[in-house]
Amino acid sequence: FKGTLNFTFSNNTIVMNNDHQAILVEDSASGTINFNIIVISGNVEALTIDQNSYNEIFSDYNCFYNRNGEISIIEPNSIESDPIFIDESDVDYRLSESRPCPDYRYESVK
Questions:
Q1: Any idea what DSSP says for residue 2?
Q2: Which pTM does this prediction carry?
Q3: Per-residue DSSP letter, 88
Q4: Which of 9, 67, 79, 99 qualifies as a cystine partner to 95, CB 3.0-4.6 A?
């Protein structure tokens, strides 16, 4: 989202390969990032917001997971947990019944 104004990025599932960053917000972009499931692998951040965009982005109610380590999240209502897909190895990214991440399409935010 380079310089994009007033964008909304919601209700997505992002699954990245090794050492690929999922979302980069830069160059005075503004908008909302919420209700997403973001899975990464490696020594990268799932979401990076540069200092020129930091105060113009609302990001919350996301589910983050790093297959190879931890993720530092500062969003009060987001969680860090394996979303438990039905069959990720067969590219079936539907959420299992035992998932810790809400299915934001169907579950209301409290």
A1: B
A2: 0.84
A3: G
A4: 99
